[in-house]
Write a structure and sequence with these properties.
Elements (H helix, E strand, L loop, with lengths): L7 H6 L12 E8 L2 E8 L2 E6 L6 E7 L5 H11 L9 H8 L4 E3 L5 E8 L5 E8 L3 E9 L5
Antiparallel strand pairs: 1-2, 2-3, 3-4, 4-8, 5-6, 6-7, 7-8
Length: about 150
């Protein structure tokens, strides 16, 4: 089986501006997430973040698979080297990624599955699956994250 996920070095060089026009981006400063402070770029609920303590290295990617054009989503997922696509169901995702290390449900009609992927360069990957629309959102960050 092919390794999952982009190398940490290549992940660190990713920028949302490479996929979305600058006029559609919001620059984030002092963003709080995962008990850390971040800077980065956002377009609605798609956010690519860098730690304030290391602002040159991308450490977290969140992609709203419903809000972005399909071609943009596929380009992003391809760059991350994930065998996923918008709309996949839970069984299809676990068939590819294996059993999740955790499950969260914040809203009645969706569930978030948390996976640990990549052996040599591990990531935590969270996939939010809507009961009717399938995979609608994902987040990915190298693990462990530095402080």
């Amino acid at each position: 089986m092919e390794p999952l996920g982009i190398s940490h070095d290549a992940f660190g060089r990713l920028r949302l501006a490479d996929f979305i026009a600058a006029e559609h981006l919001e620059q984030l400063h002092g963003w709080e997430y995962l008990d850390r402070c971040w800077v980065g770029e956002a377009s609605d609920f798609t956010e690519w973040l860098r730690l304030e303590s290391a602002p040159g290295v991308t450490r977290s990617v969140a992609i709203d698979l419903v809000a972005l054009p399909e071609s943009t989503v596929q380009s992003m997922i391809g760059m991350l080297q994930l065998p996923l696509r918008a709309g996949q169901g839970q069984e299809e995702i676990t068939g590819v990624l294996g059993e999740p290390i955790g499950t969260r449900s914040f809203v009645r009609d969706r569930v978030t599955l948390i996976f640990r992927i990549g052996a040599a360069e591990p990531y935590e990957l969270s996939c939010t699956i809507h009961e009717e629309q399938g995979l609608i959102y994902l987040t990915m960050h190298p693990t462990p994250l530095p402080d």
